[in-house]
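Human: We require from you a standard protein entry with sequence in single-letter code and fold as tokens, and nothing else.

Assistant:
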Amino acid sequence: MPEYLVRLAQAHESFRKVELQALADVAGVTLQFVKYEEDSPYCIVNLCSDSAARKIITRSILAQGIYELWGQGSTYRTLHQSVRLLSGFQWPHYENASFRFTVEGYRGGRSASEQRDIIDSFSYMALKGQPRMRLPDVAFRVFEDYDLDAKEPKYLYFGRLVAESPRNEAKRTFDLKKRHYISTTSMDAELTLLTANIAHVAPGKLFYDPFMGTGGFPIACAHFGAVVFGSDIDGRTIRGTGGSARRGQTGKYDVVGNFRQYGIESSYLGAFVSDLTNTPLRIPPPTMDLTTGYLDGIVCDPPYGIREGLKVLGSRQALLETEKQTHQDQYKAPGYIPPKRPYSFTALLDDILAFAVATLVEDGRISMWMPTANDEDIELIIPSHPCLELTSVCVQAFNKWSRRLLTYRRRRESEVPEGTLESAKKEYEKGTRASELNDFRRKYFQGFKEFESMKKEFVRLKMNSRATEETVGTAEEREART
């Protein structure tokens, strides 16, 4: 199969290979990785045709473009030899076409005159068409890969542009700064689009977000053609709380308005107030008949319980009959807020997977975000279920902690051994306070307390050292005067 060079973005490195493979799976294309390094933007793959290359790259968020590889080498001498050997038979096809020739350097570069010399060195291709920087018939690029602070490139590639990705346009279009309705927890638009790709979103599929907030994930899925709906425990978030003064907006802004903003309102089925333990959605019984699912995919960013403890619908204590009647009389009233009770974070993760097993079709995907940390003491075990296959784990690192994007595939009935659904009950965190029910939340704040204590101790030692120096200096001055 022909070799292609994928020019990747230097962002979210642990996601890039996973996204390319997911897009190949969605397109039904066979993709083989020949060369991939996380610290390099140049990835070499095998694909059957230019058509297959376009199917993958025209949805990619972490790639910039894909090129048919016409040559490679460690020096320009070996590069030219490779170009003559691999692509000589293709030159007549572009003999009279308008063309663009560019040189790109990673961790290094060339002056304008040096770039002209490099371009002239390919004159043996005998291109007779007109050079055109905008919208040429064909575009060629030389890629120079440097070691850091090196004067000469360590490796060279030469390729013909097949297709560019929609990365920059998608980031501009769905930028949260331009979105009419967001909240403080709205997920970055680039990550929502990336999650949708990894979850195998495609036209005609049905996707659901049980923690939709202001609708970031459903919007990304609808952009790629899926039919979407969602839910949230806080109905006020779905209904909207008004516009943003900094953009001069007036009137009511809500999730429906976000879909209308991007012209994808027809893909939005709606939303409802619920949590996974009290969902009105049909949940098939836990039997070995695993073909009763109806969702093609689930994408979500569950609450981590850091700002406030995790909660589900229900009362902390048993209600009196008069209290129950009060809720029954008021639950349909506008602005009614149902009571909530504390919830275990570990139970939340397991409930999400159990819900996915019951509602996903065979080979359906669930992609969910989960917090972890850079400290082993705060590490959380990746949840598992015998009916789900963990297909990828991608990590987004922050300063004191990280989070993972976990993607699971719903196994087919033939892949699940009989009796695996009859699993033993698990023991979860117990208590009535948020930190008692969320080990990550407790250790997260403990870590910051330790950091603040170390910071205060460092300041105290620094102040004591400065005071000692001043005291010594004063004593020396007195001794000199005497």
Remarks:
- The radius of gyration is 29 Å.
- Confidence is low (pLDDT under 50) at residues 306-310, 431-438, 448-452.
